[in-house]
Amino acid sequence: MAQTKYDFSQGSIPRNILSLALPMTAAQLVNVLYSVVDRIYLGRLPGSSHLALTGLGITIPIVSIIMGFANLCGTGGGPLCSIYRGKGDLREAERVMGNAFTLLLLLGVAVTAFFLVFKRPILYLFGASDATFPYADDYMTIYLLGTLFVMVSLGMNPFINAQGFGRTGMMTVVVGAILNLVLDPIFIFVFGMGVKGAALATVISQGASAAWVLQFLTGRRATLRLRLSNCRLELARVKKILSLGLSGFFMNMTNSLVQVVCNATLQSWGGDLYVGIMTIINSLREVFIMPIHGLTNGSQPVMGYNYGAKKPDRVRQSIQFSFGVTMAYTALFWAVAMLFPELLIRIFNDDPEVIAHGVPALRVYFGLFFFMALQVAAQGVVVGLGRAKQAVFFSLLRKAIINAPLTVILPVWMGTMGVFTAEAVSQLLGGLASSLTMYFTVYRPLSRLHEGEELPHHTSR
What we know:
By secondary structure, this protein is mainly α. It has one domain (13-447). The chain has helices spanning 2-5, 13-42, 49-58, 60-87, 90-117, 119-125, 133-144, 147-161, 166-190, 195-217, 235-269, 272-308, 312-339, 341-346, 352-365, 369-384, 388-409, 411-414, 417-447. The radius of gyration is 21 Å and the shape is globular. It starts with a helix and ends in a 14-residue tail after the last helix. The relative contact order is 0.14.
């Protein structure tokens, strides 16, 4: 019955996508509250708000790396599950899920050990100063103890969405985020724990989300169940998961790389003030880009299912709808960022110096945000169709090849504003290159195929 209910080869494409995208978008927005709420509260700590906010910003690259390892398994295994469901091979879909779960546990332990051992030099490398290191160290030490919770909740949730249970996937995030929202002020202000309280609230909340995921995937409601017999790693299956998951992994790794370069460059040219401003801008970017990720993630199970079912026309319709809604939303956000930059900054900090320097930086950073959405949408398409090489290319292009070098070069002539200009330029070039590549290598070839014909470049290629 569940298999029939979530047959994405039938019915309206927009309805199928929205049935997943709306709850997933809500989940993405709520998910970002984990870190954004921490920053809002810490930005208002009496006497140390500026340093606490900056110290928390130093930890963002490490959090992004941890999320990257979770995405390595989740964004690799989730689309594969959708493709195998479209083919009717539920047994292999369950094996993919079991192997992904084992990989998440192994990677989680390894990442936790690495960062605990090398935490101090890494934080200084990522832009910490003597004034901000204690805050970054306090937050990161506690956060790392909950790495396995993050890996399981983030890495296994795509397997819930891949089965069509969008609302259940949304609740994975909502449960933890609401708990975090309640615990943050209690630990930070009532118990006087400050940065340590923010980290502890996050760890407890992620633990609740992980428990929610596991109880569903091992329960009777799931079409695909997490079974111990499927958790033994098999090399061929692991290769498929990792090759497709590399796109999500490299997206987080390159985000981390650019954030490290930005923090270090801003620390050199502008000091803690500009590192704090970048923390605020990154927080806003996370909030406003989440609906785009929610939409693209919601369209991937529909694309992948019809890809596996050899229905190219429905795959094309999915691409059209995903891009159209993404562009409309991005235009709305761009207008808000350009018209009300000061209001957005005041959500986090109302220091006059932060606002004075932050407003022009924000306008430059988001000036070409429309093209950033093109890149995210294009990458969502190729991941959903299992095209691993293109997905990795899109991930590396904008951040590692364009953004990071410009972040170092442009400040030589433009000072601190060069860091924010580098982001805008990378959005333009990366977005155009990614969307045009997707159009000519995926969208147009699909128009030449008829229902039942094998689609080109399967997941193994």
